[in-house]
Amino acid sequence: MKAINNLPVILLFLLSRQISIAQPAGFYDARVQAHITAPIQKTASALVVAEWQLDSMHCESFNGQGWDADSRSYYRYDAQHRRVQDSLISFDHAQQIWQPSMLTFYEYLSGDDVKTIFDLSWNGQAWGQDTMRTRNVYANGQLTEIYEETYAGQGWVPNGKTTMTYDNQGHVSQRFSYFLDETTNEWTVIGRSTPTYLGDFIKEEVFEFTNDNGITWQSFSRVYYTIENGRIEGVAIQIWNGADWGPFFREEYTFDDRGLVVHEDSYQFNNGWEPTERCDLFYSEQTTAVHNPVSGSAASLQMANPFAGGMVSAPGLPASQDYRISVFDLNGRPVYDAVASGNQWQLSAPQTAGTYMLTVRTGDQVVARRKFVVAR
């Protein structure tokens, strides 16, 4: 993100960062979509799920003549394969050494719902206190508010928030961004965005800003995505110049034969496209037999629609308990959520082709978490 060097674009970056939290497969994060996509194969005894976790990302920046070492990010996960820590280190060219830069921690409400994200910065000798956090608020299984808060010595102080509304298909229909007016202690709207969709993917999102608390609005930027082969293969930013949209920034993704993002190239427009950053992504493979195999028809999980009369069973779980059955799409949106008894369930909900995550919970504990593919 070396291209971000002025206040309006910083605003866009903050908005886009919040969007990526609300839509993990969105802005600058197609790698997350690839990360949670995994093939499912049938063995004689059980279904086997091959999962690739994103372990690290190594980035270089372009200095006008060649590439310099820039940053490396390392990721940690818990036993439920949820991301719990990011470690960012940066290359100090003066001393020619790698230096710690930032730690990010993720806390979860239950399942895969992110509650808070904490950022800690390195002061040169030690890690400082939590300097910033993102706090998510959910309602009816949907992410409705995102608060940006800073640590003020004795407690957390809100300084910005984004709210989301949804359409009847569970898609975000509009977002509004606010800052907290310290004089009146009231939220003042500063921006809004409206996405349009191609299927379940955001195809384009237009950002507007206001200087009079929402009385008048002015176009500022738009983000649009290259969607091919059922995945996001690129993202670009255009800036409104008063008469037309002008190119500003773009990022392109390279996939391997597993469907994983393994390389990213970033460009900034300055009388022509110039490279700014390139990153390589590295994964570890975790292949495990399902301890509670999702059974019924194997084809119904991979080739057809399991919601069309397909049974899901977990014989390894006690049949005497109640379980919460949830299904999420690649954008993290819930498409099915119900409480059921026993260890066999018949899912019935409208669905489209794609890759989904099914979780089974008892209380706050996830006892089963599996991916499956719906193909027409």
Structure summarized in a few sentences:
The chain is mainly beta.
Descriptive report:
β3 and β4 (83-92) form a beta hairpin. With 376 residues, the protein is mostly beta strands. The protein has 2 domains: 7-41 and 51-286, Lipocalin (Beta Barrel); 291-374, Immunoglobulin-like (Sandwich), CATH 2.60.40.3080. It has a 16-stranded antiparallel barrel. A 4-stranded antiparallel β-sheet has the order 20-19-22-23. It has a two-stranded antiparallel sheet with strand order 18-21. The chain is 7% helix and 60% strand.
Annotation keywords:
376 residues; mainly beta; Lipocalin; Immunoglobulin-like; 2 domains; 3 helices; disordered N terminus
